[in-house]
Design goal:
The chain is mainly β. Helix content is 0%, strand content 34%. It has no helices and 24 strands.
Length: 393
């Protein structure tokens, strides 16, 4: 058994360092090895995923972030390889660079209003301009007025353990599509690493797409990254699986979002209202990813991912919970879904904000002794964010 994760350290004005660690178990999880740091020469890396080829070699793929703190100038997909079942790994090898899709805005925190007769809180403007990767109300408010969940380019990888002829590792990542960059007209932007300080932020939006790349682990050769499905809308949080030579990929997709624009976060219209915008789509390939067919809408309900359910009902959080597993032609996908969220009013919004209530969820609060209570009815649907699943083959 193999397990890998990112560890974050040293958060500061120039970002933070993050490293990838790896452990293995040879007794079905009863005991585990000491954590092994896989990234000695690269810092600020995240999203590790593990693939095991038919000959037993172990690959860990991950994303590198452009970072001032780590003196890294590129955003890239990397991998490390083990030929002894994870006992040791070789040096990191770059697969490809890319222009990221990291949803970023300028933080603009606002005080929580008090009812008539109450004492309003002081303005929360930061001493130094900072960026934010998720935006909502009050302490989570951003200068653009948009509401959105954290979304940065990530990578997933898999290998076909039934294939003893090749050492192919199949990867998907959700980067900006080249040529779709456009001034956002606000403080919102997507083409700069989310780990860069605010002074590097660019007010430029783009369209996010799911790219596929295949690595030949025996030679180190890679295919040119290409879009699986070049359509309108954003594509986010992809996953990929293979068994018996059939590849299956799936992702969040906003092609049915009536407010779609490369200048704005998913689900936001120009006024900052949010609404149903995300579905799950899937495709498969029978030729090692050269062509993709059988494009399928997996979901039967388009849902709103921007409900302010977290941080005391201040901001949204999408969760990276999209996965696909497969056996030959059969595939089953799971995803985060918001169809059961109960929309409502936030009583703290004495004057309605930019989202006009479209991001608020059902909650219960009272104002007493100069402050608002917490949400006293959290189990009445306001924070219902569920995992759904369905066949996607």
């Amino acid at each position: 058994m193999y397990f890998s994760w990112s560890r974050f350290t040293g958060d500061g004005s120039n970002g933070y360092d993050s490293y990838v660690y790896f452990v293995r178990s040879t007794d079905h999880g009863v005991t585990w090895t000491n954590p092994m740091k896989l990234s000695q020469t690269i810092h600020d890396i995240q999203n590790p995923d593990i693939a095991v080829t038919g000959n037993g070699d172990v690959y860990v793929v991950f994303r590198e972030f452009q970072s001032v703190r780590s003196h890294q100038s590129e955003n890239a997909v990397w991998y490390v390889k083990s030929t002894n079942c994870g006992a040791s790994f070789g040096k990191p090898v770059m697969v490809t660079t890319f222009e990221p899709y990291d949803a970023i805005d300028i933080s603009d925190p606002q005080p929580i209003p008090a009812p008539p007769g109450g004492n309003p809180a002081a303005h929360l403007a930061p001493i130094k301009q900072t960026t934010s990767s998720d935006c909502g109300d009050f302490s989570g408010h951003c200068a653009s007025g948009y509401t959105f969940f954290r979304n940065t380019t990530q990578v997933r990888g898999t290998a076909d353990q039934t294939d003893t002829t090749h050492q192919y590792v199949y990867m998907v990542f959700d980067a900006s599509k080249p040529g779709t960059e456009v001034p956002s007209g606000t403080t919102y932007g997507t083409i700069q690493s989310g780990d860069m300080p605010a002074k590097y932020h660019q007010d430029v939006g783009s369209q996010q797409g799911v790219f596929f790349v295949r690595l030949d682990g025996a030679t180190g050769a890679t295919t040119t990254p290409k879009l699986i499905d070049d359509e309108v809308g954003h594509q986010k949080f992809p996953d990929i699986s293979i068994d018996g030579g059939t590849l299956h990929a799936m992702w969040w997709d906003s092609r049915l979002d009536p407010s779609y624009s490369p200048t704005r976060p998913v689900g936001n219209d120009a006024s900052g209202n949010v609404g149903p915008s995300l579905d799950v789509f899937a495709a498969k390939s029978n030729d090692a990813g050269t062509t993709w067919t059988d494009l399928t809408r997996v979901t039967d309900v388009t849902s709103n991912p921007n409900y302010e359910q977290f941080s005391n009902r201040v901001s949204p959080f999408g969760g990276d919970y999209l996965w696909v597993t497969s056996l030959g032609d059969f595939a089953f996908s799971v995803w985060t879904d918001y169809r059961n969220t109960v929309q409502g009013q936030d009583p703290r919004e004495i004057t309605e904000d930019e989202d006009n209530g479209s991001a608020d969820v059902h909650q219960c609060r009272t104002f007493s002794n100069g402050s608002w209570s917490g949400d006293t009815c959290p189990h009445e649907g306001g924070i219902d964010q569920d995992i759904y699943g369905d066949t996607s083959s």
